[in-house]
Automatic annotation (TrEMBL), chain A:
Region (Disordered) residue spans: 1-29
Top-level lineage group: Bacteria
Protein's name in the database: Lactose ABC transporter permease
SUPFAM superfamilies: MetI-like
Membrane topology: Multi-pass membrane protein
Automatic annotation (TrEMBL), chain B:
Major localization listed first in the record, in broad terms: membrane
Family (UniProt): Belongs to the binding-protein-dependent transport system permease family.
Organism: Streptosporangium minutum
Record keywords, A-Z: Cell membrane, Membrane, Transmembrane, Transmembrane helix, Transport
GO biological process, one term: transmembrane transport
Gene Ontology CC terms: plasma membrane
Highest taxon, organism lineage: Bacteria
CDD domains found in the cross-reference section: TM_PBP2
Keyword Transport: yes
A Pfam family of this chain: BPD_transp_1
Protein name per UniProt: Sugar ABC transporter permease
C-alpha cells in the first residue's frame, strides 16, 4: 500500500532517492532496511504459521466438512447434508447438555467474576505476609483438575468434611452424597470449577486494582466515603475494563467444562452433569459418531463467538480511564 | 478504646478473615495430605474429621508408586515440560518479533490468524485435531502430544507487547553495525524480554504439567502418559485404596506446587502485562 501511494505521488524521483524518501517521509517506522531481504519478516513467524496451518486451520476445515457427514471412523463417510444439525435439534441430550453448560455459566459467574474482585480488594491491602495469602489463594490454579477432582471427592464424601460442617451447623439433617444426587451434583461441580480458577481471576483484578492511584481512595476517605462507597464508586467503575476480560474468560471456561465432569461424575447421575463439552467428547471418542460430534462442536464454537461479541458490545464504551 | 487498640483489633480481625479464606483454598489439599499418610487402621472419613495421621505411614506412597508406573509418568511429564516450554517460547518470540518491530505485507493477516486461535477453543478442536494428527501418523506418539501445544496466542501477544517496547534506536543501532536480524533477535530482543519470558516459562510449566485432555485423546499407550493422566488411571484401577489415591495425587502436584512457590513473585507482574495486552 505505502509503496503504491508513494509512487503515484513522486513518479519522477530517482529510484535511489525514492527509496530513502519513502522511509523518511511516509513511514518513519517502516521495517525494511538496506541489506534486509524482503522475506526476512516472513521467516520469523514461519514455525508459528506452520503450526497454525496444521493444528488450527486444517482441523477447523475438517470440522466444518465432517459436520455434513455421517462417519463412524471406520467405514466411508456418508454425506448427510444438514442432517447432523437437524438431528441435534431433536436430540434431548444435546439440549440437556446445553442447558447444563448454561447452568455452569450462570453458576460460575459469582464465583469467577464477583467474588474474585472482593478477594482482590482484600489482598490488595498493605499487610505483612499478604503475598503468602495471595499465593495460597492461587494454589488450586497451579494444580491439575484431576488432582482437584480427587481432593474434592474426599470433601464431598458422605462422611466428608462438607457434610460434617453442614450437619454440624444444622443446615442439613442428613449427610448428602453430593456427586450421586441429581440435584446436587451440578452445583458441586460448579463449586469445584469456580474454586479452582478463582485465583486467576483474583490476580487479574489485583493487577487492575494496582493501576488505580491510591490518592483517589485517600481523597474519598477524607470526604468521609465508607468502604462500601469507595468500592462501589471508585473501584468498580475503574475496574470495568478488567471485568470485560474476566467475563469473557468466565464464559469460555464455563461453556467448555470437561475434566471435572470426566473425573468426578462422567455426566451422571441421570445426565444431571452432562455438559456440552462432555457430550461432544463422548460422541466423538466413546460412540465414534464423528460427524455428529463435529456438528455439535461447530454449534458450541458459534455460541462462544456470539457470547464474546455480545460481551464486547456490552462492555465497550464503558471503559473509564483514571 | 484507644485508637491503637482499635487498629490492632482490626488488623487481627483481618488476619482471621484472610486465614479462614486461605483454609477454603488449601483445605481440600490438606485432607488429601492427611489421607495419604494415615495408617490402614485409621478411618479416612469420620465425624468429626480426624486429620492427624497416627502414626504417619509411607505405605500408601509406596503403593501408589508401584500400582501404576509412577516414575515413568513423572519422567514423561518432565520430558513434556522440558521440550514444550522452551520450544513454545522460542516459536512465540520468533513470531512476535516481526509483528512488533517490522512492517511488511500481510502482517495484519498473520496477526489476525494468531488472534483467531483464541476463538478456536480446545474443546471444539479436540476431534478434528485428533483426526489431523492421526492422518499425519502422529497418534499415540510423543510428537502427537507435543506439536499441537506449541502455538500459543497468549505467548505471541505478550511478547509482541514486550518487543514493541524496545526502543527503535537500539535496534537501528544494531542494524547499522551490520547485525543480522537473527542476531538482533537473540542478543537484543530476547534479553530485553527476560521478565516476560520468565512468566511464559511459569505458565507453560504449569499448563504442560497439568495437561490432561489432549494427551488422553492422543495416547493409547499408557507408557507415554503424563502424570495427570496417570492419576486418573490410578483412580480407575479397581481396589485402589482411597489413601493410596490420595498419596499418588499428592506426589503428582508436589513438583508444580514447589515450582510455583519459588517463582510466584513473577506471576502478578505477568498478569499486569497480560491484561494490558
Amino acid at each position: 500500500m505505502a509503496i503504491h501511494v508513494q509512487e503515484s505521488h513522486a513518479p519522477s524521483a530517482a529510484p535511489a532517492r525514492r527509496g530513502r524518501r519513502k522511509r523518511d517521509v511516509r513511514a518513519p517506522r517502516s521495517g525494511r532496511l538496506p541489506g534486509q531481504r524482503w522475506y526476512t519478516p516472513y521467516l520469523f513467524p514461519l514455525p508459528a504459521l506452520i503450526l497454525f496451518g496444521v493444528f488450527f486451520a486444517w482441523p477447523a476445515i475438517t470440522a466444518i466438512q465432517l459436520s455434513f457427514f455421517d462417519w463412524d471412523a471406520i467405514s466411508e463417510p456418508v454425506f448427510v447434508g444438514a442432517g447432523n444439525f437437524a438431528r441435534l435439534m431433536s436430540d434431548d441430550r444435546f439440549w440437556t447438555g446445553l442447558g447444563n453448560s448454561l447452568l455452569f455459566l450462570v453458576g460460575m459467574f459469582p464465583l469467577l467474576v464477583v467474588i474474585p474482585l472482593l478477594l482482590a480488594v482484600l489482598v490488595n491491602q498493605r499487610l505483612p505476609g499478604i503475598k503468602t495469602f495471595r499465593m495460597l489463594y492461587y494454589l488450586p490454579v497451579v494444580t491439575s483438575m484431576v488432582a482437584v477432582g480427587v481432593a474434592w471427592e474426599y470433601v464431598f464424601n458422605q462422611q466428608g468434611v462438607l457434610n460434617w460442617i453442614l450437619t454440624g451447623f444444622g443446615v442439613l439433617d442428613q449427610p448428602i452424597q453430593y456427586l450421586l444426587d441429581p440435584v446436587w451434583a451440578l452445583p458441586a461441580l460448579v463449586l469445584v470449577e469456580g474454586w479452582k480458577s478463582m485465583g486467576v481471576f483474583m490476580m487479574i483484578y489485583l493487577a487492575g486494582l494496582q493501576t488505580i492511584p491510591t490518592n483517589l481512595y485517600e481523597a474519598a476517605k477524607v470526604d468521609g466515603a465508607s468502604a462500601w462507597h469507595r468500592l462501589r464508586h471508585i473501584t468498580v467503575p475503574l475496574i470495568v475494563p478488567y471485568i470485560a476480560v474476566t467475563l469473557t474468560m468466565e464464559m469460555l471456561e464455563a461453556m467448555q467444562v470437561f475434566t471435572s465432569v470426566y473425573v468426578m461424575t462422567q455426566g451422571g447421575p441421570q445426565d444431571s452433569t452432562l455438559t456440552l463439552g462432555y457430550y461432544i467428547w463422548s460422541a466423538a471418542f466413546q460412540k465414534y459418531d464423528m460427524g455428529y460430534a463435529s456438528a455439535m462442536g461447530l454449534v458450541l464454537w458459534v455460541l462462544l463467538i456470539l457470547m464474546a461479541l455480545a460481551n464486547y458490545r456490552i462492555t465497550k464504551g464503558r471503559t473509564v480511564t483514571p | 478504646m484507644t485508637p491503637k487498640l482499635a487498629f490492632w483489633l482490626r488488623r487481627a480481625g483481618m488476619y482471621v478473615l484472610l486465614t479462614a479464606i486461605a483454609l477454603v483454598f488449601v483445605g481440600p489439599f490438606l485432607i488429601l495430605l492427611s489421607a495419604a499418610f494415615k495408617p490402614a487402621g485409621q478411618a479416612v472419613f469420620s465425624f468429626p474429621p480426624d486429620v492427624i495421621p497416627r502414626p504417619p505411614v509411607l505405605t500408601w506412597v509406596k503403593e501408589a508408586w508401584t500400582t501404576i508406573p509412577y516414575p515413568t509418568y513423572l519422567l514423561n511429564s518432565v520430558v513434556y515440560v522440558g521440550v514444550m516450554v522452551p520450544v513454545y517460547i522460542i516459536v512465540s518470540a520468533l513470531c512476535a518479533y516481526p509483528l512488533a518491530q517490522m512492517n511488511f505485507r500481510g502482517k495484519n493477516l498473520i496477526f489476525f490468524a494468531i488472534l483467531s486461535t483464541m476463538f478456536l477453543p480446545g474443546e471444539v478442536m479436540l476431534l478434528p485435531r485428533f483426526l489431523v494428527v492421526s492422518q499425519l501418523g502422529l497418534a499415540d506418539t510423543y510428537a502427537g502430544v507435543i506439536l499441537p501445544g506449541l502455538l500459543s496466542a497468549f505467548g505471541i501477544f505478550l511478547l509482541r507487547q514486550t518487543f514493541a517496547g524496545v526502543p527503535r534506536e537500539v535496534i537501528d543501532a544494531a542494524r547499522t553495525d551490520g547485525c543480522h536480524e537473527l542476531r538482533i533477535f537473540w542478543h537484543v530482543m530476547l534479553p530485553a524480554a527476560r521478565p516476560t519470558l520468565a512468566i511464559l516459562g511459569i505458565f507453560g510449566f504449569i499448563s504442560v504439567w497439568n495437561s490432561f485432555i489432549w494427551p488422553m485423546v492422543v495416547l493409547k499407550d499408557s507408557a507415554m502418559y503424563p502424570i495427570a493422566l496417570g492419576i486418573s488411571y490410578l483412580a480407575g484401577v479397581t481396589g485402589t485404596d482411597v489413601r493410596s489415591l490420595a498419596a499418588g495425587t499428592v506426589i503428582s502436584i508436589l513438583p508444580v506446587v514447589i515450582f510455583f512457590m519459588i517463582m510466584q513473585r513473577h506471576v502478578l507482574e505477568g498478569m499486569r502485562g497480560a491484561v494490558k495486552g
